[in-house]
Please model this.
Amino acid sequence: MADEQSGFRPINRRRRLSPEARRAQIAEAAADLISRYGSYGFSMQTLADAVGLTVPGLAHYVRSREELLTLVIERYYDASGIVPEYVIAERTDSADRGRGRAASDDESDVRSDVEGLLNYPASMRRLVESNARRPQMVNLFMRLSIEAADPNHPAHDLYARRHRKVLADMMGKPWNLPPQYRDPEAMHDLFVTVFFAMDGVQEQSLTNPDETMLDLWSRAERVLFPSPIWDGYR
Model:
């Protein structure tokens, strides 16, 4: 009773969480460990310690490493299977206000001067800006993409379908593109090229101490979207 009145809690008392909150906590801790050590580079004891559970307690939520990886994938990849790194980040004024900063026309506002259309370079730049703020998730994504080459890996099917899903999503957006890229075949080739360039920039940013992800993408932009072709379409 004294403890309840004073608000004192013993140090070793575990905080009660709902099953959903606990699974979210486990997924977050696992994502951090995977980003640093790979899917199989840490013990289940390490993960249990990170979330304040015993190994048997952890097994109540995830019974195997494969089930753990599936949990992480389900939490950090959207329901359609398209990785969040490539979901188009369209401007929302309320979100910008919530972050306490205004959206700048050349970096945050992806809407073109043509009503209903989006500027592709601005959208890709915004996406890179978003990823640059979460290097842990980029690291997680890159590690899983390598490991998923194994047909037995829980993420294998998702990554095998990834390119097709991302390209289908891109092709379905209302882009304001230069005339030479409005043909479906030319548009497809553009998106494939940008897609691979962004993967390369993300990978290099993890190992390049001299340039940030934004620096690297700025270089790529000059090649991918050169003047005068892209003037007025950025």
User: Anything to note?
Assistant: The two ends are 65 Å apart (CA to CA). Residues 1-12, 84-108 have pLDDT under 50 and may be disordered.
